[in-house]
Design a protein that fits this description.
This protein is mostly helical. It has 2 domains: about 1-30 and about 90-235 and about 300-445, no CATH class; about 455-595, no CATH class. About 60% of the residues lie in helices and about 5% in strands. It has 25 helices and 7 strands. The chain has helices at about 1-25, 35-50, 75-85, 90-115, 120-130, 135-140, 145-165, 170-185, 190-205, 215-225, 230, 240-270, 275-285, 285-300, 305-310, 330-350, 360-380, 390-410, 415-440, 455-465, 480-485, 490-500, 525-530, 575-580, 585-590; strands spanning about 470-475, 500, 510-515, 520, 540-545, 555-560, 565-570. It has a 7-stranded mixed sheet. A hairpin with a 6-residue loop joins strand 6 (about 555-560) and strand 7. The chain is globular, with a radius of gyration of 28 Å.
Length: about 600
């Protein structure tokens, strides 16, 4: 009794620790304000205060944002946090994923209890620690990225489906939860729309015989077409496909250059013989290259390098670590045994007509979902943790099936040895986690000042406190009118009355460049801006990167966390014009070089 209480207390302590490290200093680390983070925040704030997004659309089912059409779930959830706190800041933009991260851990526990009965508390503790302290799960729980929230809803869907198979008492509840979780996931992340449909179809295909598949299929279809109408209607629209189009354009551009280069060398190698060169067209073409890219990307995501050694670096993650710590590697290897055994059992059962055991059915289900969840990222060739957040969660469940294999083999023979192995894996995970967490707090989040524009709050706090002295604020370095609105210097009414967006670029991206007294100039130097406004009597403040072409002191200079490098500078444009007037020939002669 005392031993059981002690083990449970340790588990609760671990969970409280996982909660603390997600909440601790989340508003400051990562530092500053990312450009996507401000995009989510301003739309959430605008929706609460006016019912309109920053483009003037009332309660949209997709947020146009920068032209990439974000799924609405994360923004609306952020709007809820803003409505409760009545303050827009980095804490408001990051709290949703703190909630989703803890929720995912709870769903993980419930799913393991459905899969593995009786579930050893020591195995459960190891699983929660491996997932909760993994670099991908921890880092994405402290930032804004919407794929993480989508992973929570897909995890909920998986739990519901597995519960309906493993517990007859909750068969109906599990089906509803599985279907609704998949539908909501489609509102959180664009690529999860296709994953959700594939997951539901795969679960219905694998459903055990007692479940009336036709009726459940029709119910799932009706629910998807009604509750999921907001994203189902966008499955083939230009808005719904915009993000996939962006990634596809990037891949296609690289493909074209690579294929053309190989064909040109072939042409030269075959003495410029067009007939012989046609052989190269068979070897190198876009369909072949796309297929190979997809297969290679799958291999990258499921390979040991990405999973355990180098995850490439992402929003809050660091390339010094894999998506998971090395201690999950033995579980990864063992899980292959269970997957192969489940596939074998499936073929045996298919021939005999018997029902497949629940554990094998669950393994096949999770393996299929893993393949489906990676597919959107694989087709684009994108390698990033946030692109496969859902797949990484599914993979953790598969790891636990590998642990189950180890338990079933060793427990009857060597129970003490098994406990020692699990304790060793637990202790090693905690050590590696302590190492990576220290790196996160002390190194990584201090070494990405530019990526996270870590001086944004310092700059815009100053601007907000002094903007009444200026008629115009020109931003060439940060987030322009969006940051002014984010930090409260522009009202919602002003934003909607005076907003102006840039023309879409070749990827379809467009940015808010004017609102109120704010103007965002994405290119141009301080002296060029002074020349453009040299005849203006307006009081103008300029936010810029460090300038050395004009001999004038800034009114505010910001630095990186260690005070080594300068970040952004603020200038009174009158001071700049005065400095240019002292140049040889005066300001007019100086500005003549710009043909102004």
């Amino acid at each position: 009794m005392i031993k059981s209480f002690f083990v449970k207390s340790i588990f609760v302590l671990f969970f409280l620790t996982l909660t603390f490290i997600r909440v601790y200093n989340v508003h400051n680390q990562p530092p500053g304000l990312h450009i996507d983070e401000v995009s989510f925040g301003v739309d959430a704030k605008s929706i609460v205060e006016s019912g309109l997004d920053t483009w003037g659309v009332r309660y949209p089912t997709y947020f146009k944002a920068y032209g990439e059409y974000k799924a609405p779930g994360q923004t609306y959830f952020m709007a809820l946090v803003y409505a409760l706190r009545n303050e827009m800041d980095t804490l408001t933009t990051r709290l949703p994923n703190v909630v989703f991260g803890l929720g995912m851990l709870l769903i993980f526990i419930l799913t393991l209890r459905a899969i593995w009965r009786p579930l050893p508390l020591l195995a459960l503790t190891l699983g929660v620690v491996i997932l909760g302290l993994s670099p991908w799960h921890f880092a994405l729980s402290r930032v804004f990225y919407e794929s993480y929230g989508g992973a929570f809803w897909l995890a909920t869907s998986l739990y519901g489906t597995i519960l309906s198979w493993t517990n007859q008492k909750y068969r109906r509840l599990g089906f509803w939860l599985g279907t609704l979780g998949a539908i909501v996931a489609g509102y959180w992340y664009p690529s999860l729309r296709y994953v959700a449909l594939g997951t539901m179809a795969w679960s219905l295909l694998l459903s055990p015989p007692p479940l009336p598949k036709k009726r459940h299929f029709l119910l799932a279809l009706v629910l998807t077409l009604t509750l999921g109408f907001g994203w189902v209607k966008e499955l083939v629209s230009s808005a719904g496909l915009s993000r996939l189009h962006f990634y596809n354009t990037s891949v296609t551009t690289g493909q074209t250059l690579s294929i053309d280069e190989k064909r040109q060398f072939c042409y030269l190698s075959f003495d410029q013989n067009p007939v012989l060169t046609k052989w190269c067209y068979v070897l190198w073409n876009k369909p072949v290259d796309r297929l190979l890219t997809t297969v290679k990307t799958y291999a990258d995501y499921l390979g040991t390098t990405f999973l355990f050694l180098d995850s490439g670096g992402d929003y809050g993650t660091d390339s010094s670590y894999g998506a998971y710590h090395l201690t999950a590697l033995p579980l990864y290897l063992l899980s292959f045994i269970f997957i192969l055994k489940s596939i074998y059992q499936w073929f045996v059962v298919a021939r005999s007509g018997r029902s497949l055991k629940s554990e094998y059915r669950t393994t096949l289900y999770l393996t299929g979902v893993l393949i489906i969840a990676i597919f959107p990222a694989a087709t684009t060739g994108g390698i990033a943790v946030h692109l496969v957040a859902s797949a990484l969660y599914v993979l953790m469940l598969i790891f636990m099936l590998g642990l189950k294999v180890g338990y079933e083999y060793l427990m009857p023979l060597y129970p003490r040895l098994l406990q020692l192995i699990v304790l060793f894996l637990l202790a090693t995970t905690l050590f590696l986690a302590a190492q990576s967490l220290t790196h996160y707090y002390a190194v990584f989040t201090h070494s990405n000042d530019v990526m996270w524009t870590s001086d944004t709050q310092e700059v815009f706090n100053y601007v907000r406190d002094n903007s009444s002295h200026y008629d115009l604020i020109i931003d060439t370095a940060l987030h322009g009118p969006q940051a002014g609105y984010f930090f409260g210097d522009i009202t919602t009414a002003t934003l909607h009355q005076t907003k102006q967006h840039s023309s879409p670029d070749r990827f379809g991206f467009a940015y808010l460049i004017k609102a109120g007294k704010y103007e965002w100039v994405q290119s141009g130097t301080l002296d060029l801006i002074a020349c453009q406004y040299r005849r203006s009597n307006d009081k103008i403040l300029v936010i810029s990167n460090p300038q050395d072409r004009v001999n004038v002191l800034p009114i505010l200079t910001t630095y990186t966390w260690n005070k080594v490098h300068k970040m952004r500078e603020l200038y009174n444009l009158d001071d700049v014009k005065a400095a240019l007037s002292q140049t040889q020939g005066g300001i007019n002669a100086y500005c003549a070089q710009y043909s102004l």
